[in-house]
Structures are given as C-alpha cells and as structure tokens.
Amino acid sequence: MNNELISEFLKLLANENRLAIILSLAKQPLIVSEIVEQTKISQSLASQQLKLLKSARIVSSERHGKSVLYSLYDQHILHLLKDISEHVSEKSHD
C-alpha cells in the first residue's frame, strides 16, 4: 500500500464542495451549470473542484458540442463513500 497516495486521495474527499459534486454526479452525468445549480457553489469553484476530481480519476468528462458532460469515473468512489458513511454512523462500542 502506498500511504502517501492514499493520504492525498483522502484529502481530496475531505472537502464538502467536492463531496457535493461527487454525490450529484452519483445520480446522473451533469454539465457544470447543473452541478452549480445542485450544489449551490459558484461556477468558478465548481470548475476548480472538477479539475481536481478529474486529475484524481474520480470524475471523467466528455465533450458534447459546446458543453462538457461530467460523470463519475467509476463506481469505486461510491463504494468507498458508502463504507465511510456506515462507519461514521455506527454507534460506539466503548
């Protein structure tokens, strides 16, 4: 296991705006204006976050005419988020 790579990847997820984008894209592929509408973040911030998510292979993009359609790269991220959600929701066994 590469601890440094894993740490950098988890840092990407430790941002509410990026998580909101990922969860929006989990429902369906979207263009930037739809992401902005659903997440309530600015277009420039959405574009910055999408660039980071794309470089980490969390998000992919496909050009359709003048628009760029964003989608999740694969389902791995959703499995990871589901496991994290279940873990933080568990009651302590202390």
Automatic annotation (TrEMBL):
Residues 1-92 form the HTH arsR-type domain. InterPro entries: ArsR-like_HTH (IPR011991), HTH_ArsR_DNA-bd_dom (IPR001845), Metal_resp_trans_reg (IPR051011), WH-like_DNA-bd_sf (IPR036388), WH_DNA-bd_sf (IPR036390). Signal peptide: none annotated. Keywords: DNA-binding, Transcription, Transcription regulation. NCBIfam families: HTH_metalloreg (NF033788). This is ArsR/SmtB family transcription factor. It comes from Lactococcus nasutitermitis.
